[in-house]
Automatic annotation (TrEMBL):
<keyword id="KW-0560">Oxidoreductase</keyword>
<dbReference type="InterPro" id="IPR022735">
    <property type="entry name" value="bMERB_dom"/>
</dbReference>
<dbReference type="GO" id="GO:0004497">
    <property type="term" value="F:monooxygenase activity"/>
</dbReference>
<protein>
    <submittedName>
        <fullName>MICA1 monooxygenase</fullName>
    </submittedName>
</protein>
<keyword id="KW-0472">Membrane</keyword>
<dbReference type="InterPro" id="IPR050540">
    <property type="entry name" value="F-actin_Monoox_Mical"/>
</dbReference>
<feature type="domain" description="BMERB">
    <location>
        <begin position="13"/>
        <end position="154"/>
    </location>
</feature>
<dbReference type="Pfam" id="PF12130">
    <property type="entry name" value="bMERB_dom"/>
</dbReference>
<keyword id="KW-0175">Coiled coil</keyword>
<feature type="coiled-coil region">
    <location>
        <begin position="23"/>
        <end position="50"/>
    </location>
</feature>
<feature type="coiled-coil region">
    <location>
        <begin position="95"/>
        <end position="129"/>
    </location>
</feature>
<keyword id="KW-0503">Monooxygenase</keyword>
């Protein structure tokens, strides 16, 4: 078993573990965001009730509650933006995993001697190459989407 094949296999395992760790971190953050959403929603409901029920309360108190409510809405909007960024990252991870699997399959076909390849092998190699190009294009679209979001936020 040549050294370069062992090196490729080790690198593939390492990159797979990195993707797995990133996916776990993203999942944890999404769960944290969900919990925070619920907390913000409960706080917002309380503030809205205070604003509606307390007609005779001081104007300063109502202004303070309104400001708190606006702060909660802003915080929720920021969390929604982060959540959408994380969802894009999840899609990117899936495409990255797909690309690695296709790379591995393509490499196995390309390492085969041309004289030993059957017509089915060549057809499969072309199909994998076509799928690989599609995955790369999808990843490119996601990167462009992220860049557009970043620029629009500036």
């Amino acid at each position: 078993y040549p050294t370069w094949k062992r090196t490729l296999a080790r690198r593939a395992r390492e990159s797979q573990m990195k993707r797995f760790c990133r996916a776990q971190a993203i999942q944890r953050r999404l769960e944290e965001i969900e919990v925070t959403f619920r907390e913000l929603e409960q706080q917002g409901i309380k503030l809205e009730k205070l604003l509606r029920d307390e007609n005779e309360s001081l104007a300063d108190q109502q202004t303070q509650w309104t400001n708190q409510l606006l702060y909660l809405v802003q915080k929720k909007n920021n969390l929604m933006t982060e959540e959408s960024d994380l969802m894009i990252a999840v899609q990117e991870l899936k495409l990255e995993e797909q690309q690695c699997q296709l790379d591995e399959k393509l490499r196995s076909y390309m390492n085969k001697e041309d004289t030993l390849k059957t017509a089915e092998d060549e057809k499969a190699e072309q199909e994998i190459l076509k799928q690989l190009v599609e995955v790369v294009n999808k990843r490119n679209v996601l990167i462009q989407l992220q860049e557009e979001k970043r620029l629009s936020e500036l």
